[in-house]
Amino acid sequence: MKHLLSAADLSLAEALTILDTAESMAQTQSRQMKKLPTLRGRSVVNLFFEDSTRTRISFEAAAKRLSADVINFSAKGSSVSKGESLKDTAQTLNAMGIDAVVIRHHASGAPHRLAETDWIDVPIINAGDGTHQHPTQALLDAFTMRRYLCGARDGAPAADGTTLEGLTVAIVGDILHSRVVRSNVDLLHTLGAEVVIVGPPTLIPVGAQTWKARISYDLDEVIRVDRPDAVMTLRVQRERMSGAGGGYFPSPQEYTRAYGLDAERLAALQDHAIVMHPGPMNRGLEISAAAADSPRSTVLQQVANGVFVRMAVLYLLLASDEGLEA
What we know:
Number of strands: 9
CATH superfamily of the largest domain: Aspartate/ornithine carbamoyltransferase
Number of domains: 2
Structural class: alpha/beta
Strand content: 5-15%
Radius of gyration: 19 Å
CATH class of the largest domain: Alpha Beta
Number of helices: 11
CATH topology of the largest domain: Rossmann fold
Helix content: 25-40%
CATH architecture of the largest domain: 3-Layer(aba) Sandwich
Low-confidence stretches: none
Shape: globular
Mean pLDDT: 92
C-alpha cells in the first residue's frame, strides 16, 4: 500500500504492522535523544486546507523526530485564497520534489483524488477529509486501547500482534459530522472489537445502519447493559450547525442531560473502563470536567500516542522496504 487514505483500506495484518511499529517508535522516544536519522533528506508537506492544532503539530513532530524536513502549508495566505485549484497546488509541490503529502481538506475524497491522479507521485496520508475519514486518529485510538485494555491494562506497551478482540467500545455524540467515528468503526471492527454508536436520532447519519456497528439512542442503557471497556465522546461540531444546536437537539442542556459523560455516568462504568476523546473538547457539553480530568481519562495519552503512530506511518510509507504490506 503506497498511501494511507482510509481505515477501511487496512487489512488486519497492515493495521497490526502499524501499531506494532508505533510501539517500537514509542520506545525510542523514552531516550534522551529522541531524533532518529530514518528520514534524513526527505521532505514532508503538511497540506492543510482546514484549521488544525493537534493533527498538524503531531504530524510535524513525527516527521521531525524522524529527521525529515517539514513544510507547513496553510490555505489561508496561500495562492489557494487567490483561487488556485488543488490540482495546481499538487503539481507545484511535485515540481519542488517533495517526498510525501499529509493532507487535511474540507472536501470528502480530496486525498483520494490526489492519490488517483498523476498530479503528484508520492505517498498521500489523509489527515482528515470532510466528514469522511481520519485514519491516523483511529490508529492512535486503537494504540491507546491496546495499551490500557489489553495485557497490563496500565498504559504499558502492548505485545506485538495484540488485537482488540473481545472489547466493547461505545462512541457517543455527534456521529453525523464526525470523520473520527467512521474511521474508528472501520478499524475497530478489523481489530476484533464490538462497536456501539450512541447519539440522538438527528445526529445519526442516514446509512449508519450499514456500518459494522450497533446503533443506540440511550447512553445509560449502553453503559448498564453493554458494559463498554472504552467510552469515546465526540465533540459536538457546532461550526457545522447553525445556532447552538442547529435544530439537531433542543438545547445544549438537553444534549448534556441525555448524552454527556458526567460524574454519575463515569461512576457507572466498569472499574477498568477508560474515557477517550479525540479533541478538542467542549467541556460541560459532551464531557464534564470530572470525566475529562479523571484517572480514567486517556485524552492526553491519545495526543502523545498520536506522535508514535504517525512516526510509524511515515516510516512505513517512506523508509520501510515492505511499506504497509504485511
